[in-house]
Amino acid sequence: MKFTVPLAMVFGVLIAGCSNDSTKKDNRVDQLLSQMTLEEKVGQLNQYAVGPELTGPGEKTGQTKIRYDQLMSGQVGSVLNVLGAKNGREMQQQVVENTRLGIPLVFGYDVIHGYKTIFPIPLGESSSWDLGLMEATARVAAVETSAAGVQWTFAPMMDVGRDPRWGRVMEGAGEDTYLGAEIAKARVKGFQGGDLSSTNTIAACAKHFAGYGFSESGKDYNNVYIGQHMLLNTVIPPFKASAEVGVATFMNSFNDIDGIPSTANPYLLRDLLKGDWKYDGMVVSDWNSVGELIPHGVARSKYEAARMAINAGSDMDMEGAAFVENLKQLVEKGEVSMNVLDDAVRRVLTLKQRLGLLDDPYKYFDEAREAEQMMKKEHLDLARDAARKSIVLLKNEGNLLPLKANRIAVIGPLAKDKDTPIGNWRAAAEPNSAVSLFEGLTEGMPDVNFSYAEGCKLSIGPNNFVNELQIENSDRSGFAEAIRVARGAEVVIMNLGEPAYMSGEARSRSDIGLPGLQLELLKEIYKVNKNIVLVMMNGRPLTIEWEAENIPAIVEAWHLGSMAGHAIADVLSGRYNPSGKLTMSFPRSVGQIPVYYNHKMSGRPSTGPNMVFYTHHMDVDRGPRYPFGYGLSYSTFSYSPVVLSDSVKANGKSITAKVTVTNNSAVDGEEVVQLYIRDVVGSITRPVMELKGFQKTMISAGESKEFTFEITDELLSFYRLDFSFGTEPGDFEVFVGSSSANLQSARFTLK
Ligand code: NOJ
Predict the structure, then answer these.
(1) Count of CB atoms within 10 A of residue 35's CB?
(2) What is the mean pLDDT of the chain?
(3) Is 131 contained in some domain?
(4) pLDDT for 518-546, tens place per residue?
(5) Which residues constitute the domain of residue 516?
(6) Which atom, in ligand 1's list, is nearest to the CA of 56?
């Protein structure tokens, strides 16, 4: 119980007169800083994981390297993976009561799509194109997380993802920069709410800064080669948008870009983030990404790595112990200036102050609140709504859906699986806690006669600690029963896909078809009953050429979270009319990757078949199987031509694009009306089109609605040849439609 009195004095005196005055609050951080020894300052920049290595590689013992002697001596500023109000309080108390200044810890955790109540994986949820929904699910995640004593999530991930081999596309918002930025802002607002110091909000983290989604061949942690214009125009905007809405923290990415690891990249961190954008939040490294400067081959030792990372602008060292072991010496030797050190410490203390931890280190540790908040009915209701809004109807030949049959077979290794729908990065979810598809169907459609067969097994021992996920490839013993069940049914629902841990961090794949024996099983069933609804659960776009050609109805159901089965049953039964649209293209083959809608023209664009010396693959159709923005509904919509308010736009003035959308069906339905723009000639090559707006609205059966989009200079601006940001005069094409491949167009000139 050392120094509890000085702590009380420091905080007590300071709290008294200044709780709502930001200048005085900053003074409080400064005052604390002025009392700290060099060791104590270094300690604030050190973060350890506690417990088994849930979220990264650790020592062979299965335990991470947290040093309790350091924890008790002010050498640790933050911990991750400590869960529960009781555990958090105990650890906080040890630190507050045993360290000289009693500076509280900040507790972090990867809350990616819910804490106990699990929402759809972020890629799935992005398919809802519903920003309010995404803000709401992040809000509920924050309520549960903060009640469990955690104040900081390492989310949202805002890496633009164009390579479905990369397992982490499940954590992002897909392939588009504009949509990615809008979603990033919504999620940050949801986590952080209006007041970070409130006990039911948490600090968000813009990650991974930057370029991580462009790892060569989609192999996680691999090197990245992207040019400066691409970095600025494609990768950076979601991060910049998040900084603008006040995201509390940033995280480095593991990768290098053209030879410079992000953790030691002064251009990214000092010039752009903390310079141009004047970002005053804190930058945490990724898991040992400071130490990984050694295998990257840019540092000889942790000493050098620490010097490079902090001088470049990384503030906190996650799990690497490079800062805590070396910064004191680096400062004493003048290799890191006291200013640089103080700036980093000030950012960490400011985070703690914003969270209210300097006022009350224990404010987040309330066991009664924790017990009351988890998986409340309204949280689960929101999870169900989010899940059904995330479903994308990919194919519905002959209106097989919504289901009309009375004898339905449900076949597949995922149909009764209560764990896979929770997906990877499941925070504190109970294993096997999702509503399975079979449960959802039988509960939601009690008048239908459902039969079931597993058909084949999918994985053996899937969990986060198994290095190579083993997929069952030889046991066909369940085929005969599945065929028998299919024969006796009017319609067969096949539930196939990827197990939870086949996507996510370190889960890159070189073949992204349905794993194991599933496609073989599907073909066998197809031989006896062609009325198949394929319900896919997966964490990335898959290659499904045979399926898309042959199976009449295909439903993309991702890993939809706690209420998955109910949500899918809502869609299959017609209780909910699907409205999701893909945010990442489905390739036809792995060789086609990356395939994304907003590519450049090239000097030899292919405009049709039978061309030779043009950009194309000679053995595969040019476009993806299912494009960005695509998704069907039980309603059918038609679009009028686009009408612009003017064919000339003056600089500084805006024009509008209008379109009328009619629901020609007898069913009310929601449509996502999408606006794309093409800059025809630029100082650098420009994408064939870029999403620049969207509106999601319910249109009643038979109703027509007019949609208006405002085209501003901001929408037309980009980082130009000289890297300045702005517009360029010339011709623009405007496209409005129901997907990136189904558009009406018009043209205007920017003067
Ligand atoms: C490594 C991951 O790359 C990062 O996203 C995550 O936040 C950390 N581990 C902490 O678990």
Answers:
(1) 13
(2) 94
(3) no
(4) 999 999 999 999 999 999 999 999 999 99
(5) 392-574
(6) 9
